[in-house]
Amino acid sequence: MSNFEEKFIKKISDRKAVVAVVGLGYVGLPLALSFAEVGFQVLGLDVDEDKVKKIAKRESYIGHISNDRLKGAAGLFSASSDFNLAEEADAIIICVPTPLTKNREPDLSFVVGTLNALLNYLKKGQLLSLESTTYPGTTEEVLRPPIEAKGLTIGEDFFLVYSPEREDPANPDFQTQTIPKVIGGSTESSARVGLALYEQVVSKMVLVSSTMAAELTKLLENIYRAVNIGLVNELKLLADSMNLDIHEVIRAAATKPFGYTPFYPGPGIGGHCIPIDPFYLTWKARAYGLNTRFIELAGEINASMPSHVVGKIASALNDRAKPLKGAKILLLGMAYKKNVEDMRESPSLEVLKLLMESGSLVDYNDPHVPVLPRTRRGAYELKSIALTPETLSSYDAVVFLTDHRAFDKALILKNSSLIIDTRGAFPQGPAVVKA
């Protein structure tokens, strides 16, 4: 054990280490608060000045994180857009986005940009951890060389790890502290230092042999979900052709106590993970001369679901002698998953876009999204309308896209002339069309 390692671990155990978290979104903010809540001095770094200002005022910009939690961390947690302050940190944790390019290839510009912004402030005796989801090899191929070029020796006087985030926003059963956390180090000493740090805030750590193993672990988790959702979405199309309710079938299959895990169909997939992460591996696989056919097929099926939903809307309206063009349509739920405000990669936006292109007159209601934000899918000048018996009855079709707990399903069912149900939320009936 080097002198640097020994001193670092003692500093962590004494909770005198300063932790910097770069990227204060759905992953970085709860992680930063978790460290502050156990007594670490925490510095949040983000290029978004609005986030920095809100943290200074102890105002949360993420629905499931309360203002009280930010207030409780006052004195230990501060935020800034000045990356010079990283020099004061002992541990630096990177939690920035890793999207795809237009060609569905990895876009590491946020990771590379962050590293470049930090390089001048990295020094001996620090730990750098990457949490952003990425392809196997990123930590060793993208992060390690520039760090070593500064004259820092990984494993001796500087420590480098990869520890993927596993946040599930708004899930009351799992928080940062209770979700087991995977970690891999560039060296054994890096792994030991990383474990010592994260063990302060996470109840169970899972050590793997390398950063590449940790990177692949994260991709496997999300690819497993993407492929199984693609499978059940394909089965939904088949069940629909057979005039069967796929949700009834899933509920029946889920009674088997072994060998089966239920997955549920929907209007597509959203969030920062499932629509994106699988393609990080398909891209990397090509470097090994392999085609990941299951992954790519699941991606195609999932990406086709918004078009399927619009087709079901058009067919249902046609049965009522109403064309899609000019039809008044209300979308219920614009966030990508229930009970959150997160709009990243939401399939509801694709449904909205397709309907508008078809000439439909579209409004929406989402209790978590009062105004549609600008996203990579475009910008829409729309605000959430009030959900009343009068508004519901004024639409030719109501499309249920996100199963928020706040939706009054009895109100919707009673006052809608036509419901296109993409979530299996309503009983079969003359006014309900499953999609």
Quick overview of this protein structure:
With 435 residues, this protein is an alpha/beta fold. Helices cover 39% and strands 13% of the residues. The protein has an eight-stranded mixed β-sheet with strand order 3-2-1-4-5-6-7-8, sandwiched between helices. Strands 10-9-11-12-13 form a five-stranded parallel β-sheet, with helices on one face.
Walk me through what this model shows:
This protein is of the alpha/beta class and 435 residues long. The protein has two domains: 3-208, 3-Layer(aba) Sandwich (Rossmann fold), CATH 3.40.50; 233-434, Rossmann fold (3-Layer(aba) Sandwich). It is built from 14 helices and 13 strands. The strands form two sheets. Strands 3-2-1-4-5-6-7-8 form an eight-stranded mixed beta sheet, with helices on both faces. A five-stranded parallel beta sheet has the order 10-9-11-12-13, with helices on one face. The chain is elongated. The model has no long low-confidence stretch (mean pLDDT 95).
First CA to last CA: what distance?
A: 60 Å
How would you classify the quaternary structure? single chain
Helix content: 25-40%
Supply the CATH architecture of the largest domain. Answer: 3-Layer(aba) Sandwich
Number of helices: 14
Q: Kindly state the mean pLDDT as a whole number?
A: 95
Total beta strand runs: 13
* Low-confidence parts: none
Instruction: Report on the biggest sheet.
Output: 8 strands, mixed
Question: What is the spatial order of strands in the main beta sheet?
Answer: 3-2-1-4-5-6-7-8
CATH topology of the largest domain: Rossmann fold
Strand content: 5-15%
Shape: elongated
Per CATH, the superfamily of the largest domain is NAD(P)-binding Rossmann-like Domain
Rounded Rg = 24 Å
